[in-house]
Amino acid sequence: MNAATRFRDHRIDFWRGVALVMIFADHIPGNMFEALTIRNFGVSDSAEIFVFLSGFSAALAYFTRYLSGEPVYATVRVYQRVGKLYMAHVVTIAMAVALFFGAAIWFSDAHWTRVHGLDYLIRDPVHAMVGMATLAYQIGYFNILPLYVVLLAALPVLMAVAARNLLFALAGSFGLYVVAHLAGWSLPNLPSDGRWFFDPLSWQLLFTIGFAAGALYRGGQPVGFHPVAYGLALAALVAGAVIKFGNLWPADGALPIPNFMYTFDKGSLALPRMLHALALIYVVAHLPYRWIDERVMRAGERNPFSRIGRHSLAIFCTGSLLAVAGQVIERATGGGFAVDVVVVFVGLAIQLGLALWLDLWKAITAPRPAARTEPEALRARARSTA
């Protein structure tokens, strides 16, 4: 086994934790910390980082066992995770609906029955409940887990292709991405007339690229530094910042080519948006910041961001519900500096506390080596003194 798979790389957890913190801040619209997340400095945001790292982690967690001659074991483990993700989403979205409707009752504010697509649940509860169980009905800010469920459910197919030829897997993924855009394929968001906010047929390409990067990393061939590639990536980040700060968003139909090739739509992951995210990841991965990198690795599980990223599912679900509470508090109080600080920092403290508890629980419940019997202990002592 190579160095990439002998130990847990806490840098992956660290950056996933950073992404989760930014997602939490972004899910409370109007708070002042929202202005500090990466979506304010370019044309992509933390969702792209999260999906890329999900693909990268999937390669390390499952593809290693797949290539070692245990494809059935790897596939079973994948679908165990899919089941956990599905249950986590259903429970979380049910609790979110309860929080929103509870706020409507407590504050006598019908606003909370209309936000984020909740009005469909009131107008057509039968279809909405079916849609909720089948992942087709998604309310705002609770639509990334369904994407991850679909992407992970398709992972065994990706692993089967990648085990034979990784480039072919990438080519197939890119082909699906292009065809889905040109043909207008997407998954419906029922009972509305729209589509999934995070369209899996488009976002699968970023997941696959992350998977490929993880597969190369586990094989001891990580994507290396190249000055030309680094210069192009920096140029892409500068261009993204200019577009963001200059509000230079191109309109649909402005060019005689398909929209996905020059716009920055998030739901369908337009090509320039994805390239900007990949440029950001490449620049950060090869920054000359060895002292920070070593501190993250040395701190390991003690780093707060690494702790949060290591328990990403539990933290994301908890953070999403805390964000609902934050939205309600911001509206009820009118917001402001003090409210923003309390809402965001108390929410992050709760999430870090949960991560600490989960680390402790894992340490307490971890299997321990069986104690030696007295004859075995005596024989071992005799061998050590011989």
Shape: globular
Number of helical segments? 17
Major sheet characteristics: 2 strands, antiparallel
* Element pattern in H and E: HHHHHHHHHEEHHHHHHHH
Count of individual beta strands: 2
Low-confidence stretches: 1-6
Distance between the termini: 35 Å
Give the proportion of residues in helices.
Answer: 55-70%
Structural class: mainly alpha
What share of residues are in beta strands? under 5%
- What's the number of structural domains? 1
Structural features, described:
The protein has 386 residues and is mainly alpha-helical. It has one domain. 69% of the residues lie in helices and 1% in strands. It has 17 helices and two strands. The protein has helices at residues 3-6, 10-26, 46-67, 71-106, 119-123, 125-133, 144-153, 155-164, 166-183, 200-218, 227-246, 271-285, 290-299, 304-310, 312-333, 337-365, 374-385; strands at 188-189, 194-195. It has a two-stranded antiparallel ribbon with strand order 1-2. Helix 2 (10-26) runs antiparallel to helix 3 (46-67), helix 3 (46-67) packs antiparallel against helix 4 (71-106) and helix 15 packs antiparallel against helix 16 (337-365). The longest helix has 36 residues, at 71-106. Mean pLDDT is 91; it is low at 1-6.
